[in-house]
Amino acid sequence: MWELTTFQYAGEFLNDVYRRVLGEQKVSTHIVSRLVRGLNRIFTGLLTKSQDELILATSGSNSQAKVSKIFEEAVSVPRKRGESVTIKANGGDSVILEVCLSLSPNVSPVSLNLQLIRYEFLSRVADGALPGSFSRECYEDILAFKSKLLTNLDKRRAEEQEDADTESQLAFHILRLNGEGMLEKKIVEVNTQL
């Protein structure tokens, strides 16, 4: 029935996400994976099939760019080393998608309110729709969510002192799609010595 409406995923959201979360039940991993695939497609601007990790990428200068091929970090979807991506209740009757980047209390989780329109948007993008074709407002909300994640990633790096590199070379990873649609990283090194 829902396939005939604007919101093709409304029944799934209502029954398999909203009611389950408010009933303190776990949401299916295939639903979380689909939302992560949608986020990865928006975060990178590439039609990736990657869904086991949330990929944080930038364009080098602007996290709001449509295509971001400079790899920053991969966040594990299942709980691992303090990282996770989950769907849970946010008190009352709202549902959030929460991304944890660290076990440290100084790096708080980042959450995205998961209303029906955002759920529909991420699901459609995961299935191949172009982000701008459904909702410009949702697209901008997801890019703002990405910016919050990148800010918290910087906090985690500062705490872990990952960037304490005294070498004279700068290295970064460029993202590209392989033949199966999965993201791959290619390292690029820049010598900063004159």
Helix segment count?
A: 5
Question: Which regions contain 5 or more consecutive residues with pLDDT less than 50?
Answer: none
How much of the sequence lies in strands comes to 15-25%
Question: Pairing-aware structural class of the strands and helices?
Answer: alpha+beta
Radius of gyration: 18 Å
Helix content: 25-40%
Strand order of the largest sheet: 1-2-6-7
Largest sheet: 4 strands, antiparallel
Overall morphology: globular
Please give the number of β-strands: 7
Distance N to C terminus: 66 Å
Mean pLDDT, all residues: 87
Order of helices and strands: HHEEEEEHHHEE
Task: Offer a quick outline of the entry.
This protein has 194 residues and is an alpha+beta fold. 36% of the residues lie in helices and 24% in strands. The chain has five helices and seven strands; from the N terminus they run H-H-E-E-E-E-E-H-H-H-E-E.
Describe the structure.
The radius of gyration is 18 Å and the shape is globular. By secondary structure, it is of the alpha+beta class. The chain has helices spanning 10-22, 29-44, 116-126, 131-134, 136-160; strands spanning 53-58, 70-76, 84-89, 95-100, 110-113, 169-177, 183-191. It contains 5 helices and 7 strands, in the order ααβββββαααββ. It has a 4-stranded antiparallel beta sheet.
